[in-house]
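Posting here for the record, re: nicotinamide-adenine-dinucleotide.
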Amino acid sequence: MKITVIGTGYVGLVSGVCYAEIGHEVVCVDKDSAKIGMLQAGEIPIYEPGLEKFIAGGRLADRLSFTTDLPSSVRRSELIIIAVGTPPLPNGEANLSYIDGAAQEIAMAMDGYKMIAVKSTVPVGTNERLADIIRSRTDEPFDSISLPEFLREGTAIYDTLHPDRIVIGAESEAAAHKMVELHSPLTDQLMVTDIRSAEMIKYASNAFLATKISFINEIANICEKVGADVLRVAEGMGRDRRIGPSFLKAGIGYGGSCFPKDTKALIQIAGHVDYEFKLLRSVVEVNRDQRFSVIRKLEKCFDGQLAGKTVAVWGLAFKPNTDDVRDTPALEIISRLLDAGVHVQAYDPVATDNFRLLLGREGVSWHGKAMEAASGADALCVLTDWEEFAQVNLGQLQASMKRPILIDGRNVFDEENMLNTGFMYDSIGRPSLK
Ligand code: NAD
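Prediction output follows.
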């Protein structure tokens, strides 16, 4: 099938690459000419494991190309997939201006029947809004499809090629059938439903996963007070098939470009139909407070006197294996440390450049190695669970620091191992080791 993907970001690029991988002819379009220029030159604008190899394969097979020319890409394609951003507005609602813009550009370019699928996460009713925009600008026939995306950054290629399920929302049976055909090489877990339900499935899924995270974080906070170990508690809970083990990892809470914005957007969606989503409001509140547990733990170590201290931070993105720093907990944590007069020494394997831009203030020294960042520090905070942090030589680490204080915001280290070191070690939902 000839496919155009509009929006060559984390989702659009990976989706386009994967459709090419399974044999389709894909053009990835973006209005960011610098991004397209990089891709045309064989460079990758984001960090995503495995992506480079798949892009090279698609281009070699002549099935994958990149352009800023939306009209000619639309005209040559049967299926147009919209994967533009839907960032949050200040009130939490999804900003649909990129969706509207893409719809207008598609309509102006159409010269015959098209299937138009929305992969971006959009509030219920957006596909109808998009159809109205197109209908108001062209008489060419088209079918709307909701095709929500569930990939996770860091494992995006694997998730796209091995999805748990694919949800297809469509009114037209013929279009739904074509979507089933397109995706059946990837999975037999294909669900065809109406467009509004498909749009809702995406928000409901992210809201539920966020709820699991905030739930286990609250359990962790209680564990700390009652002397239980949240790792054991989560294991015991997760063995119940009705609960399942995933998303029961206590830490400093969720971040990233999806959960924070999608939970807030769903609260707004509910609000528009006069429903107060009380549970989700609490999930968001718990998550926001959880990130500051690191600061509270540091304050405890230094009797509230943080000014003048040097604190090393390992991990700047919201999770490992990504350079995406949107809504990363590290931003608020580091900002608070700086406000308190702390000097921060930071390290992340891939996200430092993006984070530095996002933070946009002085007071942090940036390091190319974890050990270098920890050197001479009064305390070390681990904010992302990169595997390389768990592998570190604890003896060497301790020797390089001014004081052996380790606040583990992601429960990266094994408590038994930590017992054999001289660290004052505090993690999330486990007894602290003095
Ligand atoms: P992104 O910001 O990385 O990429 C969006 C791209 O769209 C940008 O490169 C932008 O320049 C481009 N764009 C905007 N308007 C355009 C237009 N009219 N023509 C051409 N290009 C245009 O965003 P993302 O992280 O890839 O997310 C895209 C959507 O997918 C969002 O709705 C998001 O909620 C959803 N989603 C994201 C993830 C994730 O992990 N990132 C997972 C599932 C769903």
